[in-house]
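Researcher: We're teaching a course module on how sequence relates to structure. For the next exercise, students receive a sequence and then see the predicted structure as C-alpha cells, so they can try to spot secondary structure elements on their own. Here is the exercise chain.
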Amino acid sequence: MISTCSLIRLKPTLATPYPNSRNGNQLWRVHALTSSTAPSSGQQQSSLPTGIITRQEHNAIQIEYFTRELKSLQDSITEEVEVELERVAQSIPWLGPNTRVLDVGAGDGALIPHLQARGVLDIIAVDVCPAMMDALHKRIPSPSSTLGNQPCVRTWVGDIIDLPVYYAPFDAVFFNAVFCNVHDQRQALLRAALLTRPGGWIVISHPLGRTWLEEYSKGNTIIVPHRLPEKTRT
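Model: And here is the predicted structure for the students to work with:
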C-alpha cells in the first residue's frame, strides 16, 4: 500500500508544476486560485452531477454515513495505515512548534498524533460529522472552545467552506482522506487558499492510495464523488 499525497505551495503567481516530484508527490506553486487554476468540474472527474444535490444535502449524507461507520473506520487504522499517516505528516519539511495547521475532515483525529510528533502544537480540526469530533475529543484532549491564543488542538464542527476567516491564517492545511468526499473540490480548495498564509502549503493525501480509493468509490459514488488530483509527470 502506497499513500497518495499532493502538495500545494501558496505563491503570488499562477499555478505551475515544480520541475520534479519525489515519491509520487505532486508539488505546485500557486499564485491566485482562479477558474483557470482551481479544478473545474471536468478536471475533478466527479461522478456527482452538478445541481443534482445541494452541499447541505451532501453533507447530511456524509454525516449519516460516517456516524454509522465510525467504529469500522477506527478499526481500519492498522499499523500499516499509521506508517502512511506518518508519511503524510512528513510531507512538509518545516512543520514545528510555530506552525499553525488546519486538519480538514479530521475524523477522529488519526493524523493529529503524527503532526504532534513533528512538534506541531496549534491545530484546528474540522469535520462535518459531530460523532467524529466527539471521538476526537475522547482521543485527544482539547479545550471546549475554539477561541483563545494558547497553542493546542481545537475542533470545529462544520464544512471548511463555512469556517470563519478569523480562525486563520494557517501555515499548512491538510485534506487527508477527505478531498474526494467534499461536495465541491474547487470551492474547498479556494477556501483553503483563503485561509492559508502566503508561502503556506496545502496537502491533499489519502493513506490508502489512489488505486484503493478509486475501487472503493465505484460502489460508493455518493460518499466519494470525486477523484484525487492527478500526479505531476516529469
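Model: If you want an answer key for the exercise: Residues 10 and 198 are 5 Å apart (CA to CA). The first strand starts at residue 4 and ends at 10.
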